[in-house]
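Human: Here is a favour to ask of a fellow structure person. Comparing notes only helps if you start from a blank page. I am asking you to supply a protein in sequence and structure-token form. Write it directly below this note and I will take it from there.

Assistant:
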Amino acid sequence: MAQARRTPPRQHDFVDDNEMAVEETCRQANPCENGGSCTVVDGKVRCECPEGFTGENCAEVDMCVNNACAKNSTCRNGPSGTYVCECKENTVGTYCEFTCPEDQCFGNGVCIMRDDGRIGCNCNPGMTGRRCEKEINECDQKHCQYAVECIDKFDDYECVCEEGWFGKDCDRPCQDVYGSCRTWKREGQCEIPRESTEFFEVNCPVSCEKCIPRNDTNTQFVDRLPAILLPLSWILGVWEAEVKGTV
């Protein structure tokens, strides 16, 4: 008996339902106003606006059609039927109608139109003057509090602090926060002092009496914990042991 011949499956062109819906939107309810043409691009509705109109739905009047912006500048539509002119480099003014002299601004300053209608400069940090021709002396602003000297740098300054003070403005007193500046009164035992104590990322000198070793065998030097562990010394029991002289 002859076998029934199988018919291969019918091939169909696949059409995205969403894209079909978008095309239907263009046909039945054209969202484009003022004679705009509705098109479908990448599955999304787009409006191609006629001359004189702009915006997503061509609902806005294109104010840049007849603009007064100077040549080589760019016109941008603004709110409420206005437009602005974006000037190219070295041109200023409402319509970019003025050209800045080549040597107008020093120190990479930016040429601008001032409120009084004159050409001026926006200076970079550290510079000042009508043409950015002067370097600012930061020391004139008297940042340093307890300092013996202020060193002016470009857009910066350095304070040389008096003894016992530190910080960017020499406004913080040095503190022996780890208790390294301690004179032991008990005979035969003393602490090995550190040369400096770290506090707020700087080293402050320790101005205290140092232990003076004697030539007998009864003198005992006590090594302190690492600085990072000293605030926890009372928990570790080391502080009590040192005070009692048992270390």
